[in-house]
Amino acid sequence: MNAPSHSAQPAFTLERQREVVAALNRVLPDGCVLFNEEDTRPYECDGLSAYRQLPMVVALPQNEAQVVAVLNICRTLKAPIVPRGAGTGLSGGAMPIADGVVLSTAKLGKILRVDPYSRTAIVQPGVRNLAISEAASAHGLYYAPDPSSQIACTIGGNVAENSGGVHCLKYGLTVHNVLRVRMVTIDGEIVELGGESLDAPGLDLLAVFIGSEGMLGVVTEVTVRLVPKPQVARVIMASFDDVVKGGDAVANVIAEGIIPAGLEMMDKTSSRMVEPFVRAGYDTEAEAILLCESDGIPEEVEEEIGRMSEVLKASGATAIAVSQNEAERLKFWSGRKNAFPAAGRISPDYYCMDGTIPRKRLAEVLMRITEMESKHGLRCANVFHAGDGNLHPLIMFDANKPGEFERAEAFGADILELCVQVGGTITGEHGVGIEKINSMCVQFSPQELEAFFAVKRAFDTAFLLNPDKAIPTLHRCAEGGKMRVTAGLMKFADLPRF
Length: 498
Ligand SMILES: Cc1cc2nc3c(=O)[nH]c(=O)nc-3n(C[C@H](O)[C@H](O)[C@H](O)COP(=O)(O)OP(=O)(O)OC[C@H]3O[C@@H](n4cnc5c(N)ncnc54)[C@H](O)[C@@H]3O)c2cc1C
Fold this sequence. Notes:
Keywords: FAD, Flavoprotein, Oxidoreductase. By secondary structure, the protein is of the alpha+beta class. The protein is built from 18 helices and 20 strands. It has helices spanning 14-27, 37-40, 64-77, 129-136, 155-161, 168-171, 174-177, 205-209, 243-255, 268-278, 298-314, 326-337, 339-346, 362-376, 404-421, 437-443, 446-459, 474-479, and strands at residues 33-34, 57-59, 81-84, 101-104, 111-115, 120-123, 141-142, 178-184, 190-194, 218-225, 227-228, 232-240, 262-267, 288-296, 319-322, 349-352, 355-356, 380-384, 390-391, 393-397. The radius of gyration is 23 Å and the shape is globular.
């Protein structure tokens, strides 16, 4: 085992690093405590790679008892902890803290049980989202929430972010598909939230925990709900010569009383970005493309596809194609699913925003985003969960050009402010992390922020779990110019990190 050593200027002393490493080495097996720069470098960021921070130490516990031991050590030594799954998060939630410990769940990757009778699976937090569906497939079941990152992201990360996906419009987000979470608090206590049944007595702490971004406890086990695989699924691809008509069509489909299995929209920039890459047959002349899926038994799907086609035509669709077989359905979806990587083909860097708006305001918001492109001098592609009103503007920039990253950040902040203005919210599924922490000041009052801190303090008495993420202090809001503070008018004092 090497002793820690460094020559650069780290945010911690060598003595401190040695102290934490020695304590962790006493409770974790060989190779499960990383501290050399070449070993910790891969943990310096998540999917929001514009923000980076090398951690002091990375701990890789192999079981729940070791998670408890790591948390006990961190609490005793007052070392902040950042839980980490696969690091695919897009809001900096898993970005390390300079003088802290990253607790990775990479070695907690077992599927403990798949029960076709109760239609549930019990899994460790490091299990990949898609691996759950793969394991359940033999029983004709699957796990419905399907983030586009499902090949890599973990269920622990999904719980922490309350992740969504294409099929969440019909089947619900993570919070609707998780029955029970087992987690360890900063005090080293093992707590179970929820249960195997659909309802549990007492306050719904499971719902409080899901989406808490690693700030309340470390997930060690999850019971998920499984649903039967539909007998058949078909998708409509509809073209529109006007983004406004496409946006209105989304609202019209839902207003007709239809809940599609997926309802996604791509603007012209997006379809032109992905088509040469995936060759999904997208209409690259259309200003907007809608993908509307129906699943269920064949008769039900036939009827729903017919009704949706009628609504889309009445809303001004210029062309409609319906998938004729499973291969074609997957081809239609492949463009949507590959939109983020495809952005890398046309721009050196991109910034994926995530905000939610009422569906009926879609068209108006898309027009406003187009106006913002000129204001900030940057291009933006829109590809998103239209049925949920969950926008994902991809802002293109070149980090090597001075000032472009700052302009992209300002563009993103403007979009989030617009989401709040039209009655929406600053996040749909990617969480707040560090990326949107200043935008929290726009959406919430000082009283609401204080209520969030009160919940955090109730779980994390030591204020060590992913501190300084997701909830802004009032000082931060005031310094960022997002909240007006006048002497005597601020009711709540700032909250110290202790
Ligand atoms: C190409 C791409 C497409 C994406 N598409 C979608 C999408 O369609 N829908 C969507 O919702 N998201 C999407 N994401 C975002 C991301 O994949 C999700 O937020 C995902 O849930 C993160 O999981 P992870 O395992 O990578 O978590 P990480 O990034 O490692 O961590 C995310 C957060 O969870 C916390 N955390 C992780 N594990 C634990 C644990 N065991 N206990 C407590 N806290 C924990 C971390 O501290 C952090 O705050 C996408 C990302 C990419 C790169």
